[in-house]
Amino acid sequence: GELQQQCLRLLELDTAELSGDFAAQAGSNQVGVGRLKELVGKTGIDSYFTGMAELNDYADRITKGLLQTLCPGEYLFEDFLDDDGFGSSAIPLNLALRINAAEVELDFSASSEIVPGNLNCPESVVAAAAYYCFRCLLPDEAPACEGLFRRIRIKTRAGSILNAERPAAVAAGNVETSTRLVDLVFGALAQALPDTIPAASQGTMNNIAMGRIDADSGTRWDYYETLAGGLGGGPHYAGLDCVHSHMTNTLNTPVESLEMHYPLRVRRYAERQGSGGDGLQRGGNGITREYEFLEPAQLSLLTERRAFPAWGLRGGEEGTSGENLLNGEVLPGKCSLAVKAGDRLLVRTPGGGGWGKPD
User: What b/e string do you get for 66-105 counting C-beta neighbours within 10 Å, with b at 16 or more?
Assistant: First the structure.
């Protein structure tokens, strides 16, 4: 294909660094195409497709082996999203997990209707979260391919929060609802594998977006990051502190880089001591991160587990809920507002749940 310069220029209004990023991605794809052609050239197209089919069948046998270790039955679990930012609160997510030796069905049909806010998600996000949970139970060498998930059936209800239809808003479905779906699936699986599954992790990506367009000078900036929190404790290990968990794949943004490129100062960045739930294996601690704005800006928060903390398992205690504060005043978990130079945003991320009754 051809590079669409007009589209690239639109993206570069935010940062000129994007052109290098896109060039690297395009180059990587071209290398991948070349190597695939080389492989097919060596094996022949028929052998290539035969090998792919055998790989999928091999992966299917691995999943079948896992299912045969699970206790057959139906396992129910319910969790709640805090709110959607538009008046809906305590939004139920429900799962009926049905297991037999041949396949597993994850039935999310009893979950909430579509909500006005953007926590809705398409069924593909639900499938990704469910597949991730089962992938965690499979051996490391299991190939990531279609065969690995043949025996996993996903059932949702059209028009619900987990099978949203246009024009439902879905932006947070990918970043917030997806993380809570992992907790939901693990909560059900914990009944079938009580000595394997960990307690709930922080259950949010703690999305923070900020920026400004200066109408007089024409300058603009925007910054977005997600924040780490506590991992749930497990049967044989304490939860990790200050880490990104499950569906998120972002890393820590160095303070030096943030302050060099944006009109921001990070006044505090520390482990949130005592935020992990107590237990035989404690939950991991969240973090504390405080930003000072050096010029006026628009701030948006998209966060969860401010009302419903990460649950514990087998007698372990809940983690501590997250908090968002502006100049000491509590902010909603989901909001957008103007801030002034000198304002300070303090985010305390949730701790993970504990596993096992404390000694």
Answer: bbeebeeeebebebbbbbbbeebeebebbbbbbbeeeebe
243 and 160 in a common domain: no
Helix axes 123-137, 45-67, angle to 10 degrees: 70
Q: pTM for the complete prediction?
A: 0.92
**Neighbouring C-beta atoms of residue 174, cutoff 10 Å:** 17
Domain extent at residue 70: 16-197
* Digit-coded pLDDT (tens) for 291-309: 999 999 999 999 999 999 9
* pLDDT tens sequence across 308-326: 999 999 999 999 999 999 9
Other Cβ atoms closer than 10 A to 328: 7
146 DSSP assignment: G
Q: Are strands 323-326 and 297-302 parallel, antiparallel or unpaired?
A: unpaired
H or E stretch covering 105: strand 104-107
In angstroms, rounded to a whole number, what is the distance separating the alpha carbons of residues 133 and 130?
A: 5
Angle (CA) 347 348 349, round 5°: 110
Question: Quick one: 211 and 227 in the same domain?
Answer: yes
Task: Report the percentage of the chain scoring pLDDT > 90.
Answer: 87
pLDDT of 22 > 70? The answer is yes
Q: Please give the span between the terminal C-alpha atoms of the chain, in angstroms, as a whole number.
A: 63
